[in-house]
Amino acid sequence: MSSALPPAVPPDRCLVVLGASPDIARTATSLGCRVVFVQQPGSPVERIVDDHAHHYSVDFTGPAFPDFVDTVLRPLRPDAVVSVTEYGLRPAAFVNERLGLRGTPARVVELLSDKAATRERLHAAGHPTVRFTEVEDGRPAAETMRRWDSRSGVVLKPRRGTGSLGVLRFTDPAELAAVGPLPGYLMEEFIDGPEFSAETFSVGGAHQLVAVTEKHTSPSFVELAHVVPPRGLGPQDVAVVAEEVGAFLDAVGLSDGPAHTEFKYVDGHVRVIESHNRVGGDGIANLVRLVTGINLKKWSLGWALGLTRDDCRVDPEAAAAAVAFLSAPPGTVTDARLPLDLSARPGVLFARLDVVPGDAVGATGGSGDRVGTVAATGPDAHTALSRAQLAVEEMTVDIR
């Protein structure tokens, strides 16, 4: 099997991409068709636009976007409009429905972006879920927590939050009562157990489990590492994941395209945390490609243009792959260095620091405050994860 694939999309087809990163832009232009990038104002574009693409700077989350769709995009006669970023999913669905194009329906995107609505749909469909309720203030939330009498406590999260921002866990109702206003929050029972994500792709209602990712998080739920394949899940467990995540996708109405579904695996069953109609972030798609050979980014960009799984397959490069992240306390960076021998270490694919002296590290507690990344491969998941985590531990980022 070749490690490189020729363009699989006819050159006269037109693809519109909302909110592309440089990597997504490279993948889009490799498809061989016309590509139009629509970027948020202020987004750097010099690394994404080449001689074969066009670019527009438009706030696709703003009130003027429908006029742009009608006056600019409609005359281009695009064949597909896609986004693989969280903030571009709803605008992409809006464009597809407005122009009559193939894509994930807006109602499905809206449902998945609303954690409370997702829980309600699961409950109505009889899918296993946790107890949950919408809350507005810490005191009544604490009373509900007492009634639940949950041994592991509760988790509070913004109803439409992303990137682990604003996610809180409480084990003491008194502490929750002291929090005060919680506008737009959802409270759920916390479930102990290992956390994973299912990377799936659906075609005509048939859900294909491409990979399962093992996840490691901080006490504040910021993701610190991912590894493919997961440790501790055998073939029978993976079969259960495929079946039960597929049932979840049926319940929310997702029949075509990618999904990244986060879940706990408890007592031999899936307990869904949340899901998104896009590929997983944090480099998960790259881990999946290394281990399975399936390029989820390419498939996500091209499925509405007719690309199939086989069009997006190359030879796997590793038995296991992992990514680990460095976090730091809030403050100002005074020093940032990588170990000198890092690039020569077995299995280390890349190491990157995202800060330099003088940069400020925020205190939001979200994934955007991580300051470094290492990706590594190995003959098994344990080795790949150990290589990535060890390299992260040896990074130097001093904070004042």
Automatic annotation (TrEMBL):
Q: Provide the ATP-grasp domain boundaries.
A: 119-305
Put simply, this protein is called: ATP-grasp domain-containing protein
Q: Report the InterPro entries cross-referenced here.
A: ATP-dep_AA_Ligase (IPR052032), ATP-grasp (IPR011761), LAL_C2 (IPR040570)
Taxonomic source organism: Streptomyces sp. R44
* Keyword Zinc among record annotations: no
In alphabetical order, the GO MF annotations are: ATP binding; ligase activity; metal ion binding
What are the UniProt keywords, alphabetically? ATP-binding, Ligase, Nucleotide-binding
Q: Which SUPFAM superfamilies has this protein been placed in?
A: Glutathione synthetase ATP-binding domain-like
Task: Tell me where on the tree of life, at the top rank, the source sits.
Answer: Bacteria
